[in-house]
Specification:
It contains twelve helices and 25 strands. 30% of the residues lie in helices and 25% in strands. The strands form eight sheets. It has an eight-stranded mixed β-sheet with strand order 11-6-5-14-15-25-24-21, with helices on both faces. Strands 16-19-17-18 form a four-stranded antiparallel β-sheet, with helices on one face. A three-stranded mixed β-sheet has the order 20-22-23. By secondary structure, the protein is α+β, with helices and mostly antiparallel strands.
Length: 507
């Protein structure tokens, strides 16, 4: 293999999850043979399952040289400063403890951590993070922090590694809108950055951004790039001409709203995937809308799911980056168990302590241990806090009944233990209060009563839809039946209006 130019090798043996000494010996021989990158499956994952461990080891080996070159270029510019890297579970890792497989979902994880911080600061124990960008939408459930899944999928590969539990759908501001096989569609294709939406003036197709523009939900003067509205209209008329006879009778407004409905339903279905399918009612959650397009669709998505509250944080377009800045340094360890729970309850505290010691954390640290449990003979697991250990069985039974509606009748098996040590949480800086700008108010529109600037709103001032709240980064659409108030940190709180209210829109 070396003669053929290969310099990376992944080593995976059948029973390495139970003991890694043979894999380590094979790795030594591979290094002596001249391989530059040697990855063992047991170092990447300690789980049972040869195929899953082999796949993870191959991904790690293939991406390591690419990542190392990239990180070298960053370190060269840091002039001695520490480098911390975001992981897929939402923690920060030192370079020596980070591998490519640890960061494949680091972007969505940053958004989830940012949304979790917003939820915490506003007293929301349960929330749905809704990140709508240019090409896609990421959603994840927040419950006293971001939800972590035991495995995640990237492209066509499922990796048995923990990561933020994210559902991604191809619905973003750049999603192409058109007619296919006689029916309107939205995505999954995207116009990308080049040429971008038609309104960017570079010959792009009709996209959701153009649809929002033509529905007067985007204020061109607040956009970061010059807007060519005439190009959006031409792209829209081109789509109209491709409609079959049974749809040609639709008005422009009906067709434009139809595209929005398609996108909003796709997003709502993704939210059901992280809530309803796991036994949680989205109506019990707040929706935290961020990303460049999140505020334009948030209330419509919430209406579809019976959600009554939306938070649109300040700096919504960069909340993923804000999440990275608020993340904590973490180290984690995982051990496969595969033993009956009742046979190991007494030894669990020792296992947790040993795993903590393996992390090598010194000083103060927040420790959390999670135990994956299942019924003997089943595949799917339920993750529970490992402590207190004496209530594990009862808590598993209660969660199993909540999820499946029946009481389990078989013995419980402990599958794996995951221990995470984090630096103590720190308070994050909030956005300073902006000075009121009276001249930013009062832009009236035929479709929307007012367009108001976020910084022009007084704290706790109540605004009723239909209204647009604009700022430098995002536009938030407050439809009829919703009201909005600006909180002290610049976040917008949107709630459904009471049915008996008859307030003047925009006031």
């Amino acid at each position: 293999p070396l003669g053929a130019g290969a310099d990376c090798v992944a080593i995976s043996l059948v029973n390495a999850w139970a003991g890694d000494h043979q894999e380590r010996r094979a790795a030594t021989l591979a290094r002596e043979a001249g391989f530059e990158v040697v990855v063992t499956s047991s170092a990447v994952s300690g789980r049972v399952g040869l195929l899953q461990r082999t796949r993870a080891a191959c991904v790690q080996a293939a991406l390591t040289p690419v990542l190392e070159r990239y990180l070298d270029s960053i370190v060269d510019g840091l002039e001695g400063a520490d480098l911390l890297i975001m992981t897929s579970t939402g923690g920060l890792a030192e370079r020596w403890a980070f591998g490519p497989i640890d960061g494949l979902l680091s972007g969505p994880a940053g958004g989830a951590i940012g949304a979790a911080d917003v939820a915490r600061r506003h007293g929301q124990r349960q929330a749905i993070a809704f990140d709508m960008g240019g090409t896609s939408t990421d959603v994840t459930r927040i419950a006293d922090g971001a939800s972590i899944a035991p495995a995640h999928r990237v492209g066509d590969v499922t990796l048995e590694r923990p990561a933020v539990a994210v559902e991604t759908v191809a619905a973003g501001g750049g999603s192409i809108c058109g007619v296919r096989d006689g029916r309107p569609f939205v995505g999954p294709e995207s116009a990308g950055a080049e040429p971008g939406p038609a309104c960017y003036g570079a010959g792009g197709p009709l996209t959701l951004t153009d649809v929002n523009l033509l529905l007067n939900r985007i204020t061109p003067e607040h956009f970061e790039v010059p807007i060519a509205e005439d190009d959006s209209r031409r792209a829209f008329q081109q789509v109209r001409r491709s409609l079959p006879p049974d749809l040609a009778r639709l008005s422009d407004d009906e067709l434009l709203h139809g595209f929005l409905d398609l996108a909003n339903e796709r997003i709502a279905e993704a939210i059901r995937g992280v809530s309803v399918r796991l036994g949680y009612d989205p109506a019990d959650h707040a929706l935290i809308a961020f990303g460049g397009a999140g505020g334009q669709h948030a209330c419509a998505v919430a209406d579809r799911l019976g959600m009554r509250s939306v938070l649109a944080p300040a700096r919504a377009s960069v909340l993923s980056a804000v999440g990275v800045s608020t993340a904590q340094r973490q180290r984690e360890a995982e051990r496969s168990l595969h033993r009956p729970l009742d046979m190991m309850i007494d030894t669990l505290p020792e296992l947790i302590s040993a795993a903590h010691q393996d992390l090598g954390v010194t000083g103060e640290a927040d420790l959390r241990a999670t135990l994956a449990l299942r019924l003997e003979g089943q595949d799917a697991t339920i993750d529970l806090d490992a402590e207190p250990t004496d209530s594990l069985a009862d808590r598993f039974v209660a969660e199993y009944e909540r999820l499946y509606g029946v009481r389990p009748a078989r013995p419980i098996e402990a599958v794996r233990l995951r221990v995470v040590a984090s630096e103590p949480a720190r308070e994050t800086a909030t956005t300073p209060n902006a000075t009121r700008k009276p001249d930013a108010r009062g832009h009236h529109d035929a479709a929307l009563s007012t367009r108001l600037h976020r910084d022009a709103l007084d704290i706790d001032e109540l605004i009723h839809g239909p209204t647009l709240i604009v700022d430098r980064q995002t536009t938030t659409h407050v439809p009829t039946g919703w009201r909005c108030r600006r909180l002290s940190d610049g976040c917008l709180e949107l709630t459904r209006s009471a049915s008996d209210e008859r307030a003047r829109p925009g006031s």
